[in-house]
Design brief:
Structural class: alpha/beta
Number of strands: 16
Largest sheet: 7 strands, mixed
Distance between the termini: 94 Å
Organism: Mesobacillus persicus
CATH superfamily of the largest domain: Response regulator
Number of domains: 2
Protein name: Amino acid/amide ABC transporter substrate-binding protein, HAAT family
Radius of gyration: 28 Å
Keywords: Signal
CATH topology of the largest domain: Rossmann fold
Family: Belongs to the leucine-binding protein family.
Order of helices and strands: HEHEEHEHEEHEHEHEHEHEHHHEEEEE
Number of helices: 12
């Protein structure tokens, strides 16, 4: 009898142990499931990180500052002041490329590896940008190119991860050629001797020759030069009807073009209207016809009105400058894409979203062309005129050049 009781007791205890083990396993399994859900939720709620490359020092420092101001305001505008999209905060980290390609690569690598950014934006220099493009492909991250303009960025060096809100050299060229080129017109060019300048002249030459003009001389100057005497003399010796200038940076040639009385020799000057600091050196060019990427009085739309007002409010009464709307457009493009993906930062999904996407900017509607991811956009035919109370020649609108009119050739 005692033996039967012992056997029953052992069976009972075995049942208790098995039951307890099953409950424990079930509880652990439940914890694992709950933990996985929490991890996914935390990933979804993690901030979206954007790395911005800009020239905060070097020859294009002013352009870097304009772009950064525009980018900050663009995030504010596109998120209604929350800096948040689809429940995720947006953070951005700025790195100074120093306008040196090797530094740009170092800073971009740091943003991708240490800061683990979801997007790259930049850069002020075409040289810096071309050096960084392979990293976007290597790390499979979207790069919004702003304000670099070299054609090769969306041309020979194109990869599927880059999208450009900046206009490119060919868009500038179409606008510039439309202002002066015609049958029998002889044109000389002056540009800095690096990718921005050479791509700009190549694109302008193609557009101008299509309109019947002849390019009689191409002159390239050291990008860091401060003395352009010999360059300008070679242009004078070529005896063109027009000198078309492609330039970027603080060391502009306008004063020496004036000092050497180029226009008095029967050579008309034409160029893209630069930023406000460079406009202040262009008093001798009043009456010049050319084109503009942006001047705060040129676009007529609600976003530009907002930009001008907010910029004055935030930056001591200053108006937005040449590259401010580009920085804003880059930020708007990212936020609009994230709205469409509901905050998802999967690269392939973002590429599908961005290709062909249209979005509103201070310059009107931009569209990322699917073939090369170049943003088609409005440019402006202008004339430089004096304006009472303004201490520099002002670009006055002659007519808008539509995105379709300035669409560049696909070169990739």
């Amino acid at each position: 009898m005692a033996g039967k009781r012992n056997i029953a007791f052992i069976c009972f205890m075995a049942f208790i142990m098995i039951f307890a083990s099953a409950c424990s396993n079930s509880k652990e399994s439940g914890n694992e499931s709950s933990g996985g859900s929490t991890d996914k939720q935390e990933e979804t709620q993690a901030p979206i990180k954007i790395g911005v490359l800009a020239s905060q020092t070097g020859g294009l420092e002013a352009y870097g500052e304009q772009t950064l101001r525009g980018f900050e305001l663009g995030l504010e505008y596109a998120t209604d002041g929350t800096n948040e999209v689809a429940g995720r905060k947006i953070e951005f980290v700025v790195e100074d490329t120093e306008t040196k390609p090797e530094v740009a690569v170092q800073k971009a690598t740091k943003l991708l590896e240490e800061d683990e950014v979801d997007f790259l934006v930049g850069s002020s220099s075409s040289g810096d940008t071309l050096a960084v493009l392979p990293l976007a492909e290597e790390y499979e991250k979207i790069m919004i190119v702003e304000p670099a303009v070299a054609d090769s960025i969306t041309g020979s060096e194109f990869n599927r991860y880059l999208f450009r809100t900046a206009r490119n050299s060919s868009q500038d060229a179409v606008a510039g050629a439309a202002a002066i080129a015609a049958d029998g017109v002889k044109i000389a060019t002056l540009a800095p001797d690096y990718s921005f300048g050479r791509d700009g002249v190549s694109a302008f030459k193609e557009a101008a020759e299509k309109l019947g003009a002849e390019i009689v001389h191409e002159e390239y100057a050291d990008p860091a030069a401060t003395d352009f005497t010999s360059n300008i003399q070679k242009v004078i010796d070529a005896d063109p009807d027009y000198l078309f200038v492609v330039w970027a940076g603080a060391n502009s040639p306008w004063n020496q073009i004036s000092d050497m009385k180029v226009q008095d020799k029967g050579i008309k000057i034409s160029t893209g209207a630069p930023d406000i600091a460079a406009l202040a050196t262009m008093q001798p060019l009043v009456g010049m016809e050319g084109f503009s990427v942006y001047y705060h009085d040129l676009p007529s739309n609600e976003i530009n009105d907002w930009l001008v007002e907010k910029h004055k409010e935030k930056f001591n009464g200053d108006v937005p400058d040449l590259f401010t709307p580009g920085g804003m457009s880059a930020a708007i493009a990212i936020v609009e894409a994230l709205k469409k993906t509901e905050g998802e930062t999967d690269t392939d999904q973002l590429i599908d979203t961005l290709e062909g996407m249209s979005f509103e900017t201070p310059k009107g509607t931009m569209t990322f062309r699917p073939e090369d991811h170049q943003a088609l956009q409005t440019l402006y035919a202008i004339k430089l005129e004096e304006k009472e109370g303004v201490p520099y020649p002002v670009p006055v609108l002659m007519r808008e050049l539509s995105p379709e009119e300035t669409a560049p050739p696909v070169r990739n």
